[in-house]
TrEMBL record:
All copies of domain Lactate/malate dehydrogenase C-terminal, residue ranges: 156-324
InterPro entries reported for this sequence: L-lactate/malate_DH, Lactate/malate_DH_C, Lactate/malate_DH_N, Lactate_DH/Glyco_Ohase_4_C, Malate_DH_AS, Malate_DH_type2, NAD(P)-bd_dom_sf
Keywords for this protein: NAD, Oxidoreductase, Tricarboxylic acid cycle
Function of the molecule: Catalyzes the reversible oxidation of malate to oxaloacetate.
Lactate/malate dehydrogenase N-terminal domain span: 5-146
EC number: 1.1.1.37
Top-level division of the source organism's lineage: Bacteria
Protein name as catalogued: Malate dehydrogenase
Reactions accelerated catalytically: (S)-malate + NAD(+) = oxaloacetate + NADH + H(+)
Family the entry assigns: Belongs to the LDH/MDH superfamily. MDH type 2 family.
Keyword Nuclease: no
Length: 328
């Protein structure tokens, strides 16, 4: 018998959803041998638009897409799913207070966590894209009683891909020459794209690119602020590249990592690198024999340690704020 996965996607009628669903249905995420059922979840007012997306999915006649469900009911949407991709959220807008932002998303991700625990398959894994994604994942994990905490992830894959391309372009090499590109910490402007541990053709990137000022300044800033730069240029936030990163991210979680390489994923700390237990933090990871592991022993020099601590402290303060609101 062929494998089959059931995948829930929230915010399915949004920008990222429109770029993501076709990639999942085409087999690019789970491989050409795996049949897919899509369980698409939207707010009630977006169900009309979602119907249109489902019609387009039908019109692709994807061989491996076996079923599409459209719903605004979490119990239906998360029923028996092996993967829950949480894209819908309320990201911060101009003038919004942080407490309000955390409260609104707290409501969404608490309810979704509870619905996942009550309805999803026993092996469910949860991949959070909607911002603030680390803290949304933290809230969801805490609300999903009975689901092991190592099943919750938040996405820094787009940041990793952005960083790889910046290094490749600066070095004048193909993007495939860049490996071990670790993003540490929060998916936010404090993230640390660690060029010291990145490699270009197997050599430390900081030896291949000798313009250290560029690495410490322009490179980091470009990656940290890329989302804002896309909004400025396009008038809309990253969507196709974000969807591509979801495909890459879940591919990395479900396929073994190339020997010696690693990828970036936010997951609950067990105390690695001094990160508080339970904090959803982006680490260098590998998948070996289907099992996700944090790569230990990556050296952090003084510069890296300083950057690392900034993003760690930001995540601690987000956690403290949601704790204060009683969300975790
Ligand atoms: P859109 O506003 O186009 O779509 C969001 C959709 O979610 C809407 O259709 C809305 O109706 C739906 N929605 C809202 N609340 C929901 C709920 N409780 N249940 C189900 N559906 C719900 O946003 P889009 O551009 O698709 O971005 C989605 C999220 O991704 C945003 O939070 C955004 O900040 C985040 N991003 C995260 C990235 C990352 O790297 N982690 C990068 C890209 C993106 O900025």
């Amino acid at each position: 018998a062929k494998n089959r996965v059931k995948v829930a996607v929230t915010g399915a009628a949004g920008q990222i959803g429109y770029a993501l669903l076709f990639r999942i249905a085409s087999g690019q995420m789970f491989g050409p041998e795996t049949e897919v059922e899509l369980q698409l979840i939207e707010l009630e007012q977006a169900l009309g638009a979602l119907k249109g997306v489902a019609m387009e999915l039908d019109d692709c006649a994807f061989p491996m897409l076996k079923k599409i469900t459209c719903t605004s009911d979490y119990a239906v949407g998360f029923k028996d799913v092996n993967w829950a991709i949480l894209v819908g959220s309320v990201p911060r807008k101009d003038g919004m207070e942080r407490a309000d932002l955390l409260k609104i998303n707290g409501g969404i991700f608490t309810t979704q966590g509870q619905a996942i625990a009550a309805n999803a398959a026993k092996d469910v894994r949860v991949f959070v894209v909607g911002n603030p994604c680390n803290t949304n994942a933290l809230i969801c994990m805490n609300a999903a009683k009975g689901v092991p905490s190592d099943r919750f992830y938040a996405m820094t894959m787009l940041d990793e891909n952005r960083a790889k391309t910046q290094l490749a372009q600066k070095a004048g090499v193909d993007v495939t020459a860049v490996s071990n590109m670790t993003i540490w910490g929060n998916h936010s402007a404090t993230q640390y794209p660690d060029f010291y541990s990145a490699k270009i053709n197997g050599k430390p990137a900081s030896e291949v690119i000798t313009d250290t000022e560029w690495l410490k300044g322009t490179f980091i800033e470009t990656v940290q602020k890329r989302g804002a730069a896309i909004i400025k240029a396009r008038g809309l936030s990253s969507a196709a590249s974000a969807a591509n990163a979801v495909v890459d991210g879940i591919f990395n979680l479900t396929h073994d990592t190339k020997n010696g390489d690693n990828f970036s994923m936010c997951l609950a700390s067990n105390g690695e690198y001094g990160v508080d237990k339970g904090l959803i933090f982006s680490f260098p990871c590998t998948t070996v024999g289907g099992k996700l592991k944090i790569v230990e022993g990556v050296k952090l020099n003084d510069f890296s340690t300083e950057k690392f601590n900034v993003t760690l402290n930001e995540l601690r303060s987000e956690r403290d704020a949601v704790k204060e609101l009683g969300l975790i």
